[in-house]
Amino acid sequence: MICCQSIYDYILILKCAFCQKRTNSLVKCLFDINCEIILIINNAVCVFSRNSVVPTKYLMTVMIIVMMIGLYYFARHVERQARKLFLWKIEVHDQKERVYEMRTYNEALVTNMLPEHVARHFLGSKKRDEELYSQSYDEIGVMFASIPNFSDFYTEEGINNGGIECLRILNEIISDFDSLLDRTQFLCITKIKTIGSTYMAASGVTPESNTNGYSDRKEEDQCFLERWQHLADLADFALAMKVTLNNLNKQSFNSFMLRIGLNMGGVLAGVIGARKPHYDIWGNTVNVASRMESTGVMGNIQVVEDCYKILREYGFRFVRRGPIFVKGKGELLTYFMKGKDSPPVTNGKTVIPTLPNQIPDKS
């Protein structure tokens, strides 16, 4: 028979060890009850073992059975808690995945609405809700490109399904223009917006540009060709747009022509709106670029004299148009950009632009 003092020591040790475990209070209560039962039975055995009519082996059997029942319920409780913990872990993992997917989806939406470098500003942890995003630039290229004869093409007659077919063609044109921006050469160009059949883009507002505060080197340490490389890329983009539209004309048997205006200078960029935030640029440079497009000639790219002096250093060819009246600016000397002596290289492939309907080069 187990000594009474020994059983007290064992139970005291077990209780001390059990209290250190983070276990449910019901399980602890069950353990205490089992201990008390064992003590009662053991004391009874110690006191009445000589005079008891119940043999000691039966009393020990009862003690073992009680302990086994207690351990069984304890094991069931541990298993139940382990399953709950496992299910909680799965639920937490699924919730984390859903949060990650939702965040990725939201980031994609913001990136589609705003340029990538602007989207990073709004998705950053340091952004305050009341903060207005704005940035001024000193050396920016601005382009307006319209399809003037699209308005003549658009009709809402039955043959065009109420104008839907016309919009489908316009969507295909704009989408092909957008796909040009995925080329490595045009990473420094940002699409600003489309207004009807007019496409607006700017260069020099992205971190890929060498100027406007994004370069680690000072402006005086940069050579002329480095400073205005983004403007040359914008001019190449305008030529690529003409090639793209010409290819679409061949496929759809249409005769759309672009009228493009380019300008360079300082602008103010920012995001306006709460429900549908919109990234836009403002300034005299934008107004003159718009006038270069509206006063231009279909099939041509019109630039001001300052822009002409820069782009000719990159191998672009021009024809002098002469002075034209620009609202709000008076007379400005303008040029038509006819092409490039060295064809632009994109992704390792030489792109030779074909420029239909151009004014003959008399220079």
Automatic annotation (TrEMBL):
Residues 141-293 form the Guanylate cyclase domain. Its EC number is 4.6.1.1. It is found in: Membrane. One of its GO terms (biological process) is intracellular signal transduction. It catalyses: ATP = 3',5'-cyclic AMP + diphosphate. It comes from the Eukaryota. Its main location: membrane. It is a multi-pass membrane protein. Keywords: ATP-binding, cAMP biosynthesis, Lyase, Magnesium, Membrane, Metal-binding, Nucleotide-binding, Transmembrane, Transmembrane helix. GO terms for cellular component: plasma membrane. One of its GO terms (molecular function) is ATP binding. Its cofactor is Mn(2+); Mg(2+). This is adenylate cyclase. It comes from Astyanax mexicanus.
